Amino acid sequence: MLRIALLYGGESEEHSVSCVSALGVRRAIDNDSYEVIEVGITKTGRFVLSPIDSEWQLAVSPEVPEDAPELIWPVGGGELRMASGISLGKIDLVFPVLHGPNGEDGSIQGLMQLCHIPYVGNGVMASALAMDKARAKAVLSNAGLSVAKDVRITRANYLLDPAAQLEKAKTMLSPDCFVKPSRSGSSVGVSLAKSEQDLKIAIELALSYDHTCLVEERILGREVECSVLEKKTGEVVVSLAGEIIVSGREFYDYEAKYLDGSAELRVPTDLTNKELGEMQDLATRAFEALGCQGLARTDFFLTKDGFVITEVNTMPGFTPISMYPALWGASGISYPTLIEHLIQTGISFGSDPR
Fold this sequence. Notes:
By secondary structure, this protein is an alpha+beta fold. It has three domains: 2-120, Rossmann fold (3-Layer(aba) Sandwich); 130-146 and 220-344, 2-Layer Sandwich (D-amino Acid Aminotransferase, Chain A, domain 1); 150-217, 2-Layer Sandwich (Dna Ligase, domain 1), CATH 3.30.1490.20. Helices cover 31% and strands 25% of the residues. It has eleven helices and 15 strands. It has a five-stranded antiparallel β-sheet. Strands 3-2-1-6 form a four-stranded mixed β-sheet, sandwiched between helices. Strands 7-10-8-9 form a four-stranded antiparallel β-sheet. A hairpin with a 2-residue loop joins strand 14 (295-303) and strand 15 (306-313). It is globular, with a radius of gyration of 20 Å. The two termini are 26 Å apart. The model has no long low-confidence stretch (mean pLDDT 92).
């Protein structure tokens, strides 16, 4: 029986989202085919042996306990061990259900490669590149995909001359704009700025999460998404489209995504055959341009002038309300079958650098 380490939690602001995502994945894994070891990462970055709580939900902000028994990964190869020295045996595959920095950005993927353990999902390069919105947009634009215009501000330049950086950022106010950390997820640190004062506050907030922020034009259109899956044969398939409809809030922020029910996820949504085909083609092109493997969720705005790509998420949410598994369900692939595809693809990739 193959042994899977299900890795969740992490140091990012999406810690609780990861915990609930991991619960969904754990329930979907076939216990007759796999032995699952549940490994949590605490908010301080400790790897611990920690069972997933079947009662977890986002409303209670679950987290990995700091006092759980610590684990040590076998850098160079070997067996997973507890800090006390007890061996947990060889791990055949890691399923990293991690969101945000130090989890979804290539860090964990690099660690698994140093340990010579196969893992589910994207490799180091694609994970790091997709996580950095500024660099990902440059690659996607170079591949011929439409992206929003932006101004990029670094923490160092802002500290040196905030007035000059604010003057540069003001060019995006027409009449409003978004400000976001270059590397974050779940809309953490994202603001809608409507004035120069808003802009200053928003930039300083975003730069508290990352050393670079984007001041980005506001795109008006339908917010639509699709899921991408690479099978073990190498075939890349794309789901039907879903749509996010937000009421009572100005944009799809963290609270709308997970807490207050102000967002409706329309799965699948109504697109013409031409629109759906174009969206699926663009999602595939983005997947290939960033060097993705295994899975991704691709987000767009459908405007009067066509599709504008906003993000490629290399480890999308797997919570009960997450778009990625919901879209595959609507496309004829059940949650357990989806998880099995991801496991098999991870095994087929092996632990070679990717």
